[in-house]
Recover the amino acids of this structure.
DNA sequence: TTGTGAAAGTTATAACTTTCACAAATTGAA
DNA sequence: TTCAATTTGTGAAAGTTATAACTTTCACAA
């Protein structure tokens, strides 16, 4: 099949691709070098044909009768998602969560590189977290301009979130990952904002437990 | 409309309810006491009628011509999701991420109470993080049994994840929130496992940026 | 070289979800 | 009390997504 260039890809497909990527990586680390759609589907809690359909949509990456090659498929999905190139990211708010995020191995796995952190606390400024040095938050704007930063991760206290987002320059910043309790609309000043609620999955589990649902990922 | 007891509620609806809850709370803190479906929809990046339909499905919580009462709606959604009762939760792996999660205010907001943490590092044992004391990981199993713990949050190094999950007693533990890079199937020993990938939203942003999509939350 | 089994790729259909459009209900002002 | 302005709740239509069923292709072994 031809590589899909015209059809609109839904966000649900993209989210599943990230799941495939993760479970394929996980299987690869366990020594597997081929995986079938059935296996991927079981690991992700899906139906096998949706896995095949999702992947076939972007090109025929499998080998009939055999399955998908772990190394190749990883490379292909990385390419689809734009994870094949290193991306510089900055973090604002070097507290517990910010520190944990910079150190979270999952970001490096997908080529996100935290090159700097920003905070108001003078105690923290000048220190390094992982590879990232901590700068005063006043330096954020010029830093973004100078380094052409496109993605900002927000882990400041909720009370400060709005002011920082308002001050981001949409000529540079295209995406914001918001870990604060403030809910931003998905498009803000032409930037994509994704609100992340760590409690969300726990809330979903809570509902599942209460209602004894069997359910997917 | 009668309260829904028969129709199957999809997980997508539940996820949206958690979004509503969050944005309603956020509006409430900003001093609002009524919200219309349109306002909620805009904050969440959705269509207004889906908000109405989602809420109406569980009962008529709105007032025609006026909108939804912030306080009442919060209470209703909390009830639907089973967040109206305090739930004890334990954390395994008291590293950076574990510490950040225990301190994350979003969990307390929805009545999740971290009552203990477990770790292998003798340095950490005996200390407290938030309200939670850190115990040796050997004490996990008896602790779960003694306190009837139903939810476990997993923030250990990936290499240890499998062993800990295998050792959880499904007679007590119903839900696992897995922050490690290991991907577990959604049902493991009759426990609900939710795999959380902090990098996932960044991957989605990456794709959106690459393809200049306009998209929802 | 050919036959066989396995699993990808593909199509058609069923199931589900979202949106539209409007009736019903409520408030507040005239 | 009535009227206008709102906004919910909801049935039907449209649109989308997932599933099942089918066809094709590949690798391997005889």
């Amino acid at each position: 099949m031809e590589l899909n260039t015209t059809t609109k890809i839904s966000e649900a497909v993209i989210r599943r691709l990230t799941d495939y990527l993760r479970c394929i990586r996980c299987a690869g680390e366990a020594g597997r070098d081929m995986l079938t759609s059935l296996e991927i589907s079981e690991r992700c809690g899906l139906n096998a044909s949706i896995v095949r359909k999702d992947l076939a949509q972007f090109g025929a990456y499998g080998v009939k009768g055999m399955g998908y090659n772990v190394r190749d498929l990883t490379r292909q999905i990385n390419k689809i998602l734009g994870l094949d190139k290193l991306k510089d990211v900055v973090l604002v708010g070097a507290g517990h969560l910010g520190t944990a995020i910079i150190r979270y191995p999952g970001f490096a796995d997908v080529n996100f590189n935290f090159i700097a952190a920003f905070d108001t606390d003078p105690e923290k400024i000048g220190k390094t977290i992982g590879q990232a040095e901590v700068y005063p938050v006043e330096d954020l704007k010029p830093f973004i301009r100078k380094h052409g930063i496109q993605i900002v991760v927000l882990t400041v206290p909720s009370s400060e979130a709005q002011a920082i987002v308002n001050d981001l320059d949409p000529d540079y910043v295209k995406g914001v990952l918001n870990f604060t309790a403030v809910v931003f609309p998905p498009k803000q000043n032409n930037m994509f904002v994704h609100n992340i609620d760590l409690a969300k999955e726990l809330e979903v589990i809570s509902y599942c437990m209460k209602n004894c649902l069997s359910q997917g990922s």
Remarks:
- Chain A touches chain B through 72 residues (CB under 8 Å).
- The mean pLDDT of chain A is 92.
- Chain A has two domains: 11-81, 87-200.
- The first helix of chain A runs from residue 11 to 29.
